[in-house]
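A further point concerns the way the authors explain their paired sequence and structure data. An entry of this sort, consisting of the sequence and the corresponding backbone structure tokens, reads as follows:
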Amino acid sequence: MSYLDTKHKKKSASLTAIIAIVILLLIFNFGMRYFDPPEEYGIAVNFGTTDFGSGNVQPKEALKPAKQEIKPEEVVEQEIVEEQVETSSATSDTVEDVITQDNEEAIAIKKQEEAKKKEEDKKQKEMDRKAEVERQKIVAEKKRIEKEKQEKATKRKQLDALMGGFSEGNGNATGGEGNDNQPGDKGKVTGDPNARGYYGNGGGGSGGNYRLGNRKALAKPKPTYDCNEEGRVFVSISVDKSGRVISAQPGVKGTTNSASCLLKRAKEAALKTKFNEDSKAPSKQTGVIIYNFSLSE
């Protein structure tokens, strides 16, 4: 296979060869040249083996090391200086370490003391608060007890005034009355000596509400209140023209307490009730009587 198969390639190869030859000629003729080093010029130095010396005889070999005499004072001074330097250095390091350690420990101790003081102050405040709450409770309880004492004393005085000193055991009456097996006079100081009931707080006893059209109740006997019960009893009644109650049925609609004792006492009182006479009334006119039994009256 030929590389110079064309005219242009052959021409290029010829030019390349010519240029290379020219470059080589230029290098050999005009290239870098070697020059011999110039002679040196300067000052000659004397032979010696130390940086110092004295005398007029030039030794051919190295001298023996000369012994240097050191005065005792210089040795002592040098040792003292070295010792002072070492001591001062060690002392400064020690002092610095001690100061640093003291500062750190002092800060840590101070922080611990402050934290402890805060905790103690907090506990003391909590204890003071609890003590104040307890004190207020005690004061409130004392006031309540004192108030109760005053109220009891006032009631006792009022009772003494009503009983003429009987509550203190200074009365002059003898005997007793009641339905128990113990001696005494059962009842209330505000009650009626002729009443047969023992319950409630005295006063008017039980009230009644009479409903019979336009007719009015002339006789209104109160029920005997010897029941330890309270409530409202409705009694259905039948009344003739003369105003006499001919029948009574307690516990009808509206009754709030159907205890047998209350029903019995209500019926007894209803049968004893007397209304006004009315010739125009039916032979059997019906109505209602309402009795209120209250232990607080």
In short: The two ends are 150 Å apart (CA to CA).
